[in-house]
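Readers of this paper often ask what the protein records in our data store actually look like. Such a record has a labelled line for the sequence and another for the backbone structure tokens. The tokens are whole numbers drawn from a learned vocabulary of local backbone shapes. We quote a single record here, exactly as it is kept in our systems:
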Amino acid sequence: MGIVAFFFKDRPRKHLIDNPDEVNLSFLEIVSTLRQALTSSNALILTIAGGVLYHVALGAAVFEQLWYAQERGFERSEIAQLTGIIGVVAGLAGNLFGGLMSDWWLRTFNQGRPMFLFWLTLLLLPLGIIYRFVEPNTFIFWLGVVIGYFQLGCFYGPTFSTVQELVPPKIRATVVAFYILCLNLIGLTFGSLGGGIFTDILRSFDVIEPYTIMLVTFSLIAGLAIPCYYFGGKIYESDRKRLLEKFNN
């Protein structure tokens, strides 16, 4: 795939044709523009914060296979294969659903895509908590597993589109890279490292199901993304208009 991509012709971007001086920005100019973009759009900051909080739970999810085996009684190789298949199918379905529905939401309600993520997370979070406590191999249990992968797939299209729409074209790649850095360095690191430490603490107090309690706790932490998406969606349009007016001038 990489070799094939090498032969693709890079289509010139309009803003670079109109403003050729923007091609060779220095590192300090890029950092300065990034800072200005972040400080001029609260919707952008809230979207990034929501994504980081969401990835806290995703980081903690590295312990899910141990949860399946040690606290829900599944055989390791069997559940790994089964959840892998579910992840592929439900994740792809979520990607399509998240992209199509967030576009529809933006056109229909004139609200930013973060508002779509607000409703999606608000409605699905209770199931993400409940299925941790039900008996395995029940309908609610497997529905929770499927919805978890489905929701993960729904996340990426709307959030990355929002980040790109709230910054000037000349630094979109930089802001996306900054966003990915935050997701991994803060969200995933805190989730995986914090999840492991918290589980060890629970074990030291002889908690019966430490992985269950840890995963639920970190899901609730990720739930703090809900107000971020709500307020980000509310002010998305005004921030977007201000950006367009500034860029056109």
